[in-house]
Here is the input.
Amino acid sequence: MKRPALIVAAAVAVGIGLFLSPFASRSPDGLETVADDHGFAESAAERSAPLAGYGVPGLGGGRLSRAVAGGAGTAAALGAALLVGRLLAAKRKNDAQEETGKR
Here is the structure.
């Protein structure tokens, strides 16, 4: 993918994360529902996360908090995908150079 197209795609994804996440359902997700239905939700260990509860500490629990969390989560996922892609591309290039050097 060309760099301008990648930048546009990333901007669209982060924009969706920023502007649509405040309207996400506040109902429990599927895992929470199953845990409640089968009676083991109470035994789950509490874990902390940077954006726990789809919100940013200090911004309250409103739409702004969910928007920032959605944008940050999307940007983090895109960054991770970009990093993995670059690492795989570098490995492929290195493998190709080694292969041509063996001949």
Observations:
- Residues 18 and 68 are 6 Å apart (CA to CA).
- The radius of gyration is 20 Å.
- Residues 3-102 form one domain.
